[in-house]
Amino acid sequence: AAIRRLSLPSRARPISKLPAGPLSPQLRLYSRDYCHLCHDMLAALEALRGEPGVAFFDIDVVDVDADPVLEEKYNELVPVLVDAEGRELCHYFLDAPKVREYLDALR
Q1: CA proximity to 1, closest of 54, 56, 53, 52
Q2: Fewest Cβ atoms closer than 10 Å to its Cβ: which of 11, 14, 17, 82?
Q3: H helix intervals, the chain
Q4: Whole-angstrom distance, CA of residue 78 vs CA of residue 63
Q5: In what order do the strands lie in the sheet with 80-82?
């Protein structure tokens, strides 16, 4: 998958952006490089994205350690998955039913 940088209002830099499509719903994963739960959630999101019947979605991965504000806000909660409006969908582990429900509501 291609890696693209995002323009964020804070100094946080995204780790990666996994492309979906031009009109796809967007989810943001607050993460850190050395976090195994973060890597697990990203893998679970990628698997969910490949499931039949699940709306395809973009995943923006943002390194919380690149911004002191994000680090303070999400420090011990990472990984944290939020929707396009910044509302938390889950943290620590992927809540696949909640994410499916969110994506279904956007159709």
Answers
A1: 56
A2: 11
A3: 36-49, 68-74, 96-105
A4: 10
A5: 14-18, 58-63, 26-31, 80-82, 88-91
Using DSSP's 3-state secondary structure scheme, residue 53 falls into: coil
- Non-local CB neighbours of 26 within 8 Å, separated by 6+ positions: 57, 58, 60, 83, 84
- Taking the C-alpha atoms of residue 66 and residue 85, their distance in angstroms, rounded to an integer, is 21
Q: How would you classify residue 38: left for phi > 0, otherwise alpha for psi between -120 and 50, otherwise beta?
A: alpha
What integer is the mean pLDDT of 91-99? 97
> Do residues 71 and 58 make contact, with C-beta atoms less than 8 angstroms apart?
no
pTM, two decimals, is 0.80
Written as six digits, the tokens of 56 are 């395809």
Contact criterion met (CB below 8 Å) for 59 and 47: no
Tokens 């582990």, residue? 93
Residue 43 clears pLDDT 50, i.e. is over it = yes
